[in-house]
Structures are given as structure tokens and as C-alpha cells.
Amino acid sequence: MKFIEKVRDSRSNEAVELELPTLAILGLVDRDDAATSEFLVSLKKSINVLPALALSLAIGVGLITFIEYQAGLWSRIADVGALTALAILALVMFAGLKSKIAFKMSPARRVNALFLLSIIVGGALGYCLASGLTSAERIPDGINAIILAIMLVSLVANGALPILQLGLLIGFSACFFLSGSLSASAAFGAFALSGLVPILVSRVMTDRAEIKRAAQERVESSKTSALITMFEESDRIWFWETDRNGRLTYASPKLLASFNKPKEQLLGTPLTDLIESGDDQQGASAKGDRTITFYLSNRLGFSDFPVRAAIAGSDQWWSMTGRPIIDSLGQFRGFRGNGSDFTEKRRSEAEINRLARSDSLTGLPNRSLMIQTLEQSLANAKVNPVSCALMLLDLDRFKIVNDTLGHPVGDGLLKLVAKRLEKVVGSAGRVGRLGGDEFTVVLPVAPAKTDIADIGAAIIHQLSQPYMVDGSNIVIGASIGIAIGPNDGDTADSIMRSADLALYVAKADGRGIQKFFDPSMRFEAEERRTIEADLRSALNKGDFSLVYQPVVCSTSERIVGCEALMRWMHPTRGPISPAVFIPIAEEVGLIQKIGDWALREACLEAAKWPAHVSIAVNVSPVQFSDPTFPSSVMNALAQSQLEPGRLELEITETVFLNEGEDTDAMLSNLKSIGVRLALDDFGTGYSALGYLRKAPFDKIKIDRSFVAGATVPGNRNAAIIKSVVSLAESLGMDTTAEGAETMDELELIRSLGCSHIQGYIFSKPLSAAEIEYELGGIDNIVQVNGFQHSRAARISMLRTANLKHGGYSVPVRIRNVSTTGVQIEISNPIPVGTSVSLDIGLRTELLCTAQWAAGGRMGLSFNGPIDVTLLTAQKPTRSEAA
Ligand code: C2E
Ligand code: MG
Ligand code: MG
Q1: Strand runs labelled E in 397-471
Q2: Which of 545, 548, 559, 618 has most ligand 1 atoms within 8 Å of CB, for mutation?
Q3: Which uninterrupted H or E stretch holds 796?
Q4: Which residue's CA is the closest to the ligand 1 atom numbered 10?
Q5: Residue 10 or residue 100, greater confidence
Q6: Of the ranges 151-160, 209-218, 562-571, 580-589, the best mean pLDDT one
């Protein structure tokens, strides 16, 4: 007999016919399924009642024996024997099922053994019951047997397989019919059947459902396994399974192939032997520093766990996922899971990680890595008695290079800067790029302040050497702000802010220098920020004006031109020097607008002057790099109706940082408009003479720093001026010496052959009305007005410094400096005659004596003469207007 069942595949919804084997349903063939093991487990529990059963039998036997002894019925001893046999059987079953031998038997064998036992038990019962029911003397037998039967039936029914009930029924009925009267047999048979048959039927039904479910699962799993095979063949993923002891019981061919070992050898190996131990698994840190062994030994599921394969000589990484296998009885039976090769992904993740921590252009550590380095250094500095240093670097004039030569050249330049920086810093610290032209150096263990200053000076020196990028010769500079942790900041954020302020001051003080952080800088930075904000609204509010400084012909002493110089009257701060606000306007992108305004205003003013007087207008390199600049010039000329030849554009050497085609094109564009071109501040910056040959300049303006001090005996400035003049003459250019203040300077300049002179000796910059008045004269000859001899030439500047005396350090502001002394602004003047030292950002401090004090200013004399060019060599500030 066969059961045929129709089942439906839940995925495909197809109907499948299933043959359910009868023997399997009856539990007669090996059925290592959940139902069987469930039975055995519950039987094992139920078996514990067997001692009680044995006790009840012993009592029963004792009772019967006593009654029969009283009655002298020795012949019925067989009944006693039968009951005793039952008791023994129950105990044997108990011992048997608890024994090790039973546990070694397959579940099906155990079922078969129990089947035989059931028949015997059933038979004994039948016999006892039949004889008890047919003879009045045997009533105790009968009662005893009924108790026994109920207990056994309930025991077996509790977790039995149908086959056991069947066995019980067979044995019972057989003996009952053989030994009892027919009518009583029939009555009891009906009674027994009515009790047992429903149980049997319900058991068969449950089993049938279970077998059907298992069969259906097999149908479905055959498709699943086809898919799994497909997966396994694709080599992308592999599967594994372990037993409860963690030994491999299954491995996909791909996994087997990785180890190049026969299947038999690999199966049975502990899974943990196939992967590297925890310490080697850097990937484990992603999972809270737990290793896969932790999950396996704690029978916890894990997913996408990175592990390194224990394959000698290969760096293979797997991503493993596993789930504990728990059977229907809640028992742990092992692990099952999948894995995939993670090597490539891990490599690219490592690469991504590396890229995320380094700057893609220069390959230097990026901001986040530098912040981390800083944090580590600070943490170390807090624990150990050491300090760390942070240098923030900003490249001077980089923006101009980038704007004028293009980003590819800018990028090339940054790469070279990175290389030079690394070379200078070496093993003393770590170099990183924060972005744009901002670099940083962290010295985890800071040396003495003077040594840090040495490193800073070396960096500035190296970065200021010319670069060759894509055929362009480029010169830039660098400014550095330095903060020392944990003094200037004990968190990465605060030390960064301090170094940033120091950098701010370094840039404001003329660039090309380094500054150590000082708490007073906070106030100054605040000031600069407000200036920036105010600058934006100044043009609309009409706070800018132009003043005009005469340029005089050195032989005739007639005014032949004027330089337009911008002035900003701040509503609350009063006049602010162009040396201060022009660089800020360049930085914040306002210079084009302001410069355009100055150009138009100056042309309109010059149009009112006599025709032989020209007007010179300063042009910022940022304006110069703007392709629309020539049209701005033409507009200004058109609007004012000024003759183009009367307009002179003053350009600084900075524009030749990029000797590219754009510069040449701009110069010739401007030239074609008909304006004159003057090279301003000659000698202060780039000073590569090569460009002079091809650039169509009409004039060279020799910077004031050469004129000042030229008359001091032994100074070589005069020789320099002389050679510039002869160079200009040979190229057909005029020369203007800027900043002549004294008679002897005037004499010297004249004798050196400069064609024009501009300086306070003739006139300070004048307002529009004043210059109109001045030019309204008949011959425009100006009177000289100055000292006969130059005192030690004073150079005006706005620069912060620290005055140190009596253990105190006071922030002061330098107004001007000469070889012999310095004038400072100080809020609390110190007594005249006090010896002090002045820290002006040089490596050594200057020893001075206070000479005078008046109105918040003081004069200090240096204890020995200093070389002022040290302060001006990098052109720290442009001269401040008088
Ligand atoms: P600059 O073009 O070299 O202008 C000459 C500077 O030297 C002016 O300073 C002028 O007042 C000053 N000066 C002239 N003769 C003497 C002298 O005998 N002694 C002293 N101590 N100083 C003298 P100012 O007006 O403060 O301008 C500073 C710089 O600001 C200028 O240097 C120029 O580069 C820039 N600047 C001024 N106006 C403008 C402008 O409209 N546009 C642009 N882009 N820059 C401007
Ligand atoms: Mg100028
Ligand atoms: Mg100048």
C-alpha cells in the first residue's frame, strides 16, 4: 500500500505528486527525522516513570501472592509469574533505553526494539486481564492489570510512534483472545480498541502530515540546491557547514580548491584552523575587536565578518557569514553559512582608506590625518613633559599664479612645494596639506623655540626659491604661523585657531615671515576681520578717495605727472593705509571693483589738468590677470576723454611670476590702447631682469627702500640705483626714484641720472583740489622741502612686535624704524632710560633703550646699529602714507 499525495511547490506553485511510503509512516524503516527523535527524547523523559511502574507491579504481585496464599491457590502461580515478567520487562526497557548501547543504535533500530517489547508487554497484559475478567477469584489480577494497562498506554501514547501502539495492541489482543472467553474478549477488545485506535489514527495522521511536509521540503530544496549549485559554480560565493564541535562537515568546491587538499582531508578539520588567529585579523576591529572564534564558541551568528584565510604564502581575505543550526528541539547542531573572497574588495577598501587620509594631489597626509596626528601629539604632550608644535603655512602669491597661469601649473607648483617641505622637515615632524595653498607641519615633540624658528626660516627660504613648472619660472613665498601645544591650545581645534591667528599676523605683517602665536593676536585678528567686513561697504558709502602725489622731472623740477593713491577714511577708525586694505581687498575679491573705481576717478581728475601732466594709476596683479581689464581701461579713457598717452599704469613685478603668454598678451593689449606702462617697486620682489627685455615698459620706478639709506656711507644702494638707471636708459625707459625725502637723497638721485623723482622732498600726496591748485601755476615748478641730510633713514611700517622688560612682554606697534632706532605705539609707556628688548619677528631680539615718550608713542634707540634691510628684504609692508 502506498500513499500518494499532491503537494504544491510554494515557489513555482507547481503541483507535484508524492509517494509516501507506508512503512515509513508506521515507523518501520529508518526515519531519522524530527518526529522520531522527538519521540525518543520524550520517551526518555517518560521512561522515568518506569521505576514507579515497577513499584506498583511489586505491590500488585505481593497482593496477589498474599491473596492466593490465603486461598491456598498455588496453581495460579503462573499469573504471578506473568506479572513479575512485566515488571522485569519494564525495568529492562528502562535500563535499555538509558544504556549506552541504546544510544549507539540508530533511531529506527530503537523503534524496532521497542516494537517487539510492545508486543510482549501487550501479550502479558492481555493474558492477565483475560484471566482476571473470567474468574471471580482473580479480581485483584484484573484490577492490577487495568492499572498497568492504563499506565503503559498513556506512557506509550505520550510520545509514541504508531508502531508501538500497534505492537501493544497486537500482543494484547492475541493473548486476550487466546486465553479469555469470547464474549468477554469481544467486550474488552472493543473497549481497548476504542481507546487505542483514535490515538493510533491521530498518530498516523500527524506522522503523515510530517512526512508530507518533509517530502514537500525535499521538493523545494531540490530547486534550492540547484540554485546553490549554480551559485557555487559561479565561484563568487561558497558554503560551509560544521558539526556541533566546529568541524567542517560541508565545504563548497571553491573552498576546497582554495586549500588544494582532498575533500576527505579538509572535512573534519575545525573551521577555526582554516582562518588566521584573531591577532592577525585587522578586519576584526570593525566588529568591536571580536574574533570569529568568539562568535563560534558562543554559538552566535555573524555576518560579513572579514577574516584572513590560513593559506600559507597567500594574502587571501574572506568575508564570512554564519548562523548556528538549532534543530526543532532547540538543540545546537553546528554552524552553517557562506563566504566570499574579500581580498580585492579589502585591497580597494584599504586604498580608499589611504586616499581618504591623504591629499590626492600631493600625496601628503590630508587635513583629517593631520588633525589626528595633532591630537595624538597633544595627548602625548599632556602626559609627558614635552610640548608639540603646529606650523600653519600659507603660500604667498599662490592665488596669482593659479589665476594667471591656470590650475594645472598651480597644481604642479603645489606638488613641488610638498616635496621641498618634506625635505626640509625630514624626520622632525609630519607634513600635510590642509587644502588650497595651505600646508601644515606637526612637530610631535617640539624642540626649543629657537630651533622651531630655524625650521620655519629654512622652510620659508626653501619655498621662496624659484620653481620651474611647465616652462614657467615661478617665485612665490611662504608665511608661517606657529603655535605650541598644550600652551597655545590643548585641543586640535584650539591650537589650530592659535596657529591660524599667528599666520594671519604673519601675512598681515608683510608675508614671507613666521610668527609665533601670542595672545594679543586674538584682538588684532578680530580687527582685521572687521576691516574686511567694512571694506565691502566702503565703496558704496563713498569712503574711498584719491590723493595725487606729484612726480617731478629731475632736471627741470617741473611736475610732469602725478601718482593717484587711494585713501580710505573709515567712519570710526579714521584713515586706513592702502598698504593695509589693498591686500585685504585682493584677498576677498574686491580689488577689481575698487580698482575700476580708482581708474575712472583718476582719469576724470587728470582730464582737468594741463595736457603735459600725466596720471599714474596703480594696478593690482589681480586686476592685471583679469581679461576684462583692457576694456575697463578703455571705458575709463572714453568716459574722461583723457588722452591714452597721459595714462600710466603702474604694475608690480609680481605679474612676472608667470612669464606666460597671458602676461605678454595683456601687456601688448594695454600697449595697443596707447597707455604707458610703469614697473612699480622695482627691486623689491621678483627682480629677474629677463622680462625687462621683452616687456614694453616706459618707466621703471625704483623702490623707496633703495633710495632710503643710499646716502649712508658704505651703503651699496647707490650702486644698484646707478645700474638700474643705465639698464633703463639702454632699454629706452624712464626712471622714477621713489621716496626721496632729504636734500642729500635728491642730490644723489640726480647725480645717478634718474629722470624723475617722487618723494616728500617735493610733495606729499595732495587732495584733488590741492593738486589742481598746484598745477594751475604757470610753470608747475615745485619747491624742495626737506632736511638737508637724511637722518638714519626711517622706514615707516605698521608692524606688531613685543616689547620685553622686567620679565613682561607687552604688545606694541612699530610706526617706523631706522638703523639706529624705532618709533613704537604703546598703551602704557615705560620710563625713559629703561633698557628693553624688542621682538620683531627676527630670530634674535633687539636690545634698546627708551629715549622719549609722548602721546602713546615712544622712541627707542638700538644699542647697536641694525641692518634695516633685514626687515624690508621680504617687503613686509608697503610704505605707509605720511
Ligand atoms: P606705491 O605705488 O609704491 O606708492 C608709493 C607710496 O610711497 C605711497 O604710499 C606714497 O605715499 C609713498 N611715498 C611717496 N613718497 C614718499 C616719501 O618720500 N616718503 C615716504 N615715507 N613715503 C612716500 P601709499 O599711498 O601709502 O601707498 C602704498 C601702496 O599702496 C602703493 O605703493 C601702492 O602699491 C598701493 N596703492 C595705493 N593706491 C592704490 C590703488 O589705487 N590701487 C592699487 N592697486 N594699489 C594702490
Ligand atoms: Mg605706485
Ligand atoms: Mg612704488
Answers
A1: 430-435, 438-443, 467-469
A2: 618
A3: strand 795-805
A4: 881
A5: 100
A6: 562-571
